[in-house]
Amino acid sequence: MKICITQTKPIKGDIDKNIEKHLHFIKLAVENKADVIVFPELSLTGYEPELAEKLATDIDDQRLDVFQKISDDNEILIGVGLPTKTGNGTCISMFIFQPNTSRKVYSKKYLHPGEEKFFVPGENLLPFKYKNKTIGIAICYETSIPEHSKTIYDHGADVYIASVLNSIDSVNKDIYRISAIAKKYKMISCMSNFVGTSGGSHCAGKSSIWNKDGMLLEQLDTLNEGIAIIDINKQETTKIQIEKSFE
Predict the structure, then answer these.
(1) Which tens digits make up the pLDDT trace of 72-88?
(2) Which domain holds residue 52?
(3) What's the pTM?
(4) What is the pLDDT at residue 107?
(5) How far apart are CA 82 and CA 52, in angstroms?
(6) Backbone angles phi, psi at 16, to 5 degrees
(7) How many distinct structural domains can be found in the chain?
(8) What CATH number has the domain bearing residue 196?
(9) At what angle do helices 65-74 and 15-31 cross, to 10 degrees?
(10) How many C-beta neighbours within 10 Å does residue 51 have?
C-alpha cells in the first residue's frame, strides 16, 4: 500500500477553488500509484474559525461528488477537510471517500483550547480497514491526547494519519509527538500540514512520514506545496515539491 500526504497552501474560504487545487494533488497521487491521499485540517476552506459556520456543509454536498468519482475510477481513498453542520453546532471534519462505498465523516472530538468559541466536539470514526491495512485518523490537537492514540492502537491500526494546521511555533512539538506515537505503537505515521497563512497563523509545512520505530523517513520543506508518499511494503518514500502554487 502507498500512503500519500499533501502539503497545501489554502485559499481562504473558497471551497470551489480549493477543490480545483485538490484535484491537481490527487492527480499527482494517482500518477504515483497511491492508494490513499489525505489533506490538511479543513483543507477545502482553510483553517478559518470565524468563517466556519457560514461555510459548514453536510455529507450530501454535491460539490464533493467529484472526489467520489475519482475514488471509484482510480481505487484511491481520499480524505479532505471541511467544517460540518450538526444539531449542536459546527464540527471540524474530514470527508473520507472510498471506492464504491458511501462517504464517511470523521469529526474532531478533542478541540484545542479556544476552538470551543467556534466549534463543538464531533464524533471520531474508529480505525477502519482499507485494502490490506487498518487506518486511524487524527485531526491536529488530537495528536496531543494520549487516550486518542491509544484508542487507535487498541483497534488495530497499522497506519496513523494526522491532518493538521501547525504554525511555525507549534510544528516541532507535533513532530515530536507523532514520532513518539509511531514508536510506542509501532504504526507507520504521517502528518499533513499547510504552508502559507491560514487563520492568522504562519503555517510551517514540514509534512512528514515516520516508520514504525518513529524514525523520520520523509519531510517536505517549510515553504512549498507538495506531496510525500510511502510505500509501506518496501519502506520507500517519494516526494514532489511544487515551487509554483496550483492557484
Answers:
(1) 999 999 999 999 999 99
(2) 2-242
(3) 0.97
(4) 98
(5) 9
(6) -60, -45
(7) 1
(8) 3.60.110.10
(9) 10
(10) 17
